[in-house]
Target: UPF0173 metal-dependent hydrolase EYH37_01070
Amino acid sequence: MGVKLTFIGHATWLIEGSKRVLIDPFITSNPQAQAAGITLDSLLDKVDLVVITHGHFDHIENAVDFGKKGIPLVGLFEVAQYLASQGAKNTVGANIGGWFEVEGVRLVFTPAVHSSSLIKDNGEPIYLGNPAGVIVELDGVRIYHTGDTALFGDMALIGELYKPDVMLLPIGSLFTMGITEAVKAVDLVKPKIAIPMHYNTWEPIKQDPEEFKKKVEESSCAEAQVIIVQPGETTEISA
Ligand code: NI
Ligand code: MN
Model:
């Protein structure tokens, strides 16, 4: 057993196994997806479930496109309610807490230290609840997508309890952890594989993933292997 993990760019990932799970559908305006030649149309018929970590535009842009096709959208309650109001036919509103199952995929939402809102054209924010991370368990593989987050000490608890095989984590700084914090986050969670994301999408979050890789390898958590996945690339994860 195992899954294929494809980086769509920024914080958007496609996990393919017995089910196909898309996390944080940001495709149309995603410069990394565009550069990799990935279009929304190419993904619309390839997904069984969409999971959303929080309400920021660079995480939910295309959620309703999938939702209008009846593909289940899973997010925190406020995000799910909002997407339903925009025409998504099948939303599952959950919250940070414990395991639940949708379409045969097991999920847990975890805390994230960030914010969650959508900004209307007039500049007013629409409050969309708390931000989250998510653990997705599919075909014997556990993937922890941290969502956008700062470093926090309870990541150790997430690592201890859920023992993720793969940790997808931001290194871009400015909006999220930078490299220094991300190295410590890997140390706390102790995944088998750590994959950086949420960097180099735009100039303000420019980072060198090789520096992240080197620093993780030098840190006390030497057992975590860092894989740098380029937008459009797929990596196989065995269970
Ligand atoms: Ni965000
Ligand atoms: Mn973001």
